[in-house]
Amino acid sequence: MGIFRLGVFGGTFDPIHSGHMHIARSVQKNFSLSKILFVVAADPPHKTRKNLIALAHRYAMVSLATSEEPLFVPSLIELESHASSYSVDTMRKISRSIRPSKGEIYFIAGGDSLLEVNSWKESEKLLTSYNFIFVRRPGSDACNYENFLPEKAVPRVRDLTGLGRNAIRRKIEDERLKKNRLFIVDADAPDISATRIRNLASAGKNFRSLVPKPVYSYIQKLRLYGGS
Ligand code: ATP
User: Rounded to an integer, what distance in angstroms lies between the CA atom of residue 227 and that of residue 207?
Assistant: First the structure.
């Protein structure tokens, strides 16, 4: 048996959309991840928006979007006992379930998160205890990461943007041997955000192509974001 590589993809998923699915598929392939947990944020400390829709709906949509993907698993770990909404606590909890000699953990986030990660709880500890994959997001440039990361994390950055697929794979294989890298990758993520989808839905406009099909049906059936 090879090493178990667990991806952890956290988000509010309000709603989950094709951008999320695209980056999850891309990093799963490039990093040969054994499984990706989609951790639905229960009470996200960094989202100032008050009117997130209910966790039950966000989780239902993540379940629908991942149901045909054997390696993508929805997670409610933030609701479990002694859980918190802080990434550092969730990662600690997840890492306890994996023996370090047998597995590696990769935290997956959009490049826009790189710009705010310094304000996360125990950011230095978090960023130096696990592998991270920051996926470039259209409209958000993550090239001056030195300005946004805690000092100790900067030498761990491996910027893989601009490399071809084979070069990326080779680099990942080399780097894997060292622990806890912060990879920056370009996955050609589509320019989609949950905000745009909510706006389109509430204006009664078409957003069919921006979300997985069953998620679209669910939003329409329940009129989750208003609209006609
Ligand atoms: P909102 O518009 O409500 O802020 P969002 O589209 O950013 O939502 P989240 O659930 O907050 O969706 O995203 C979870 C993670 O996925 C975040 O780390 C975010 O940066 C990343 N992400 C979301 N959409 C994309 C995208 N199109 N490209 C790259 N990363 C993305």
Answer: 12
